[in-house]
Amino acid sequence: MRKRVNGWTLVVALSAFAAVPSFAADALAKDLTSTIALLGLPCGEVVSAQRLKDNDYLATCKDKNRYRVYMNAEGRVVAQKR
Known about the structure:
The protein is α+β, with helices and mostly antiparallel strands. It has one helix spanning 2-38; strands at 46-53, 56-61, 66-71, 77-81. It is globular and about 30 Å long. The termini are far apart. The relative contact order is 0.13.
């Protein structure tokens, strides 16, 4: 019985660690969706995001628009349509 409990504990712990990147990706997509909307660009919802560099992302929207969202030299967030 002891081995079975330890096995289930391991399965639960590994499942929790596997889910963490998914939550981070969801949060990033929501942040990019908000940023693009605040800049007044059409998007709807970001469905995928790829990190290019620090503070530099390629966001793909549900409506197939793609934007490079980054921070320029003056410290302002900019979104360029790709």
